[in-house]
Design goal:
This protein is α+β, with helices and mostly antiparallel strands. Helix content is 29%, strand content 38%. The strands form two sheets. Strands 1-2-5 form a three-stranded antiparallel sheet, with no helix packed on it. Strands 4-3-6 form a three-stranded antiparallel sheet, with no helix packed on it.
């Protein structure tokens, strides 16, 4: 290996670092990119936390418990369920019937008018397109009653 000259680098480690991109400038750039990525992740997580928190407080709180279901015949399933909602809220629920492969074979929207009761129990019959083995409530939501 030739001796270093006045025009060449005196530190062989600096020459190798420069050859493979490990310079002070590259370290500053990498540090800036990591800080930016970390700040971006913090901002995204903070926005998600606020959004998820606000999503929980919007509208009336509605909970539903599916009770018993009974296959009446090859074309009908009876589903019993209990809905809890704020007093005075109009609630609609999607009730569905399923076959052994969890394919929806029938569904029905059940509307509950405004009531001062917070908990109501209902039983409804869902007509099916093919033989079913179970029935349940998929979801409930509030709606503006006319």
């Amino acid at each position: 290996m030739p001796e270093p000259t006045a025009s060449g680098p005196l530190d062989p480690g600096a020459a190798v670092g420069a050859r493979y991109g490990r310079t002070a400038r590259a370290r500053r750039r990498d540090r800036w990119l990591l800080i930016s990525l970390g700040a971006f992740i913090v901002v995204v997580m903070a926005c998600w936390t606020v959004w998820a928190g606000l999503d929980q407080v919007r509208g009336p709180g509605i909970t539903v418990d599916t009770g018993a279901n009974r296959v009446v015949d090859a074309r009908h399933v009876t589903v019993s369920f209990t809905v809890s909602a704020d007093a005075g809220a109009s609630v609609a629920c999607a009730v569905e019937a399923q076959d052994v492969e969890f394919t929806i074979t029938g569904w029905k929207i059940v509307r509950l008018p405004r009531s001062q009761k917070t908990t109501r129990s209902l039983t409804t019959t869902v007509r099916t397109a093919q033989p079913s083995v179970s029935g349940s409530v998929d979801s409930c939501w509030s709606y503006a009653a006319r």
